[in-house]
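Record 1 of the preview.
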Amino acid sequence: MAALVMAALGVVYGDIGTSPLYSVRECFNPVHGVPLSVPNVFGVLSLVFWSLTLVVTVKYLYVVLYADNESEGGIMALMSLALAKARESGGFLNRRTIFVLGLCGTALLVADGMITPSISVLSAVEGLEVATPLFSPYVVPATVAILVGLFLVQRHGTTAIGSVFGPLMLVWFVTLAAVAVPWIVREPGVLAAIDPRYAIRFFIENRWTGLLVMGAVVLCVTGCEALYADMGHFGRRPIALAWQYFVFPCVMINYFGQGAVLISPGQAEAVKNPFYALAPSWFLIPLVVLATLATVIASQALISGMFSMARQAIQLELFPRLTIIHTSEKMHGQIFVPEVNNFLAVACVALVIGFRTSSGLAAAYGIAVVGTMGITSLLMYTVERHYWKWSRWQAVGATTAFVLLDVFFLCGNIAKIEHGGWFPLAAGAGILLILWTWHQGNRVMTRQAMEAAIPLDDFIRNINAESIPRVDGTAVFLMNYPDVVPRSLLHHLKHNKVLHRQVMLLYVAVEGVPTVPSSRRLKLESLGGGFYKAIVSAGFMQNLDMREILRLCENAGTPVKGEVSYYLGHMTLRTTGRTEMRQWRKELFAFLFNNERSRTIPLGIPPNRVVELGEQTQI
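->
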């Protein structure tokens, strides 16, 4: 348990732990027009305290984290959980609505993931400017160099970095509190900001401007969705223990310390960067180094989360197949997806070069994750009603309270749209378009395939009545649909007019749960005449390997005989067909379809044992 709590410090709370670098500073950004005064400082601190309490502790820790899908969390796991109990149509949240909300939440979370490494590392490196203005020209190049180095080492896996996650973040959180305590001792009255009346008074006095500040306050809770997504790695209890007894106290001590700096006489310049103003001059450079390392860890956790999310999307057939490389022999969840890594690297570097300051990025940061938080609140209604058996009024009351809180943050972020908030919205819209196009295109392809399909039972009956030469060995044909003949088998018979003595028809069924236990991974059926149908079940968090599948067949009493050959259908898609999709979406789907990775890669099929049979189709 202690080890899990330690790991949770680094992975789960990396983003929340680095938010003190920029949260308070952005609240007093001149764009918001909030003057620096004791009442306003107390109001901001009160907003930060109650945001962390209501959003992280109450909403996520005490409610959302209990909505696990086979011990896994995250927006896709929640979507799958809600879909299992949702109505086909009608009702508050039907299946189509839940599916669309899940796709929107996923797209927004990916868009937010592009910004998090950029703003975290950039805000840490900006501490060099506090040390001396001479470092100002080197902040952006240094940030770009750190980000490039971070993405270059991803292919080696997170084991090496993971071994120092917990201890280093433990030092970071202790440092957050340690640099702030002397200032709180100097200005103990700052602790009165815990009183929620200061937050209420802040809104009364500042009105619309006070609401805009919520767009900066939300920066302190942007790690909530990552917290939920990483639940499967550690479990709820270690996350709760780490937050309640260590992370929350350390982070809030730092926030109150920054408030004490701002209200101290002669510290007006501290508003430019109140976090680094906490440190004595001799400790400034070490603090910049430590902050940079902490932000690298926070970024590493998010990048790994993007890899996992990509794999989930592929397993749920929401995204084309990508290259998935396992980087650890012991930890199944450690994967590397080169395409996602390259995409994030380019996006992060471009954002740093384009916005140049963490204040500029802060204008774009937060709005996407607030949208995902709102979607989580809505999807929780189905869980509360159908899994936890809450009454309608209990579920409606909880959902309304959480949605109102999310709307409050969203209103504070509206003004960000023209100052950079358009980027995560545009990026999220682009990702949503790809996800929806791939989903719709697959539905069209499935309908066309089923219309031309030959039922498997009829085929087996007829094939056994004919005399077809058989050769030694085993042929494995991958099935796209469980009850129809694979087109690769039909093409093989048409051109080669021969069959292996043992023919295995393999269908992989991805279920709407994160993992499937080994006891029900394989359903093997003998069809007669040397034909077998193997249905392998997998969760959307699992990867399959052909060696594992053959081992399951052996354990089921059907040993694979002789050499194994794998027959795949290689289909080229044309956009000249007559379907309901618009032409530009056909072109997008065809581009994705014709460039997706081979099915042999995610199944671990030896390339030298593969026979591909090509054909063309159109949509």
